[in-house]
Design goal:
Blueprint lengths: L8 H18 L6 H16 L4 H20 L9 E14 L2 E8 L17 E10 L5 E10 L3 E7 L2 E7 L1 E10 L2
Parallel strand pairs: 3-7
Antiparallel strand pairs: 1-2, 1-4, 2-3, 4-7, 5-6
Helix pairs in contact: 1-2
Length: 179
Amino acid sequence: RSGLDKLNPRDHADLVAVARVQDQERKGGKPPASQREAARKARAALLARKVDPDKLLAERDRIIRERTAYATWVDKGLEGTTIRMSGYLLPLEFEGTRVTEFLLVPWVGACIHTPPPAPNQIVYVKASSAVETSGKFDLVMVTGRMAAKASVRELFLVDGSDFIDVGYSLQATQVRLSR
C-alpha cells in the first residue's frame, strides 16, 4: 500500500488542494489567488499534522507514470505474427461505401465522444481489399500480420475529427463482417 492509501479524508482533501495548484502551475497556468491561498493553508495544515505533501505528490506522480506505461505497453512478441482477432470497425479511409483502412476497437462507441481506449487496445488495420461496411462499429473478424508499432491516426467524425493513439497495426489478409 502507498502512503496515499493511508490518508484520512481531511488529509486527502488538503492534498487535493495542494495538487490542484501544483498541476495548474506545471502546465503553465496561473491558479486564482483564492486557490493558491487555499493550497498554502492546506500545505501548512498537512505539515502540522506530520504529513509530507511533497513526498505524497511525488508518489502520486510515480504511480501516474507507472499506470501510463502499463496502459500504453505493447507486446513486442506479437511483431510479425499472424493473428485472428475480432473487434469493432471505425472507418478511416473509404472507397465509396467500402473501407480500406480502419481502427479495430474493443467496444461499440470507443473513440467517439468518449475517452478512447488505451493505445494498446486499438489496432490500425490496412485491408488487402476494400470491405463493404454499413458504417461505424460493424463487428468484424480480421486475420493478418501484426506489428507492435505505435502511431497516431486521425479519425473523422460527423462533427469534427480527433487524433487517436494506436499501439498496433495489422496488414489484413482477410476481413469478415459478423452480421
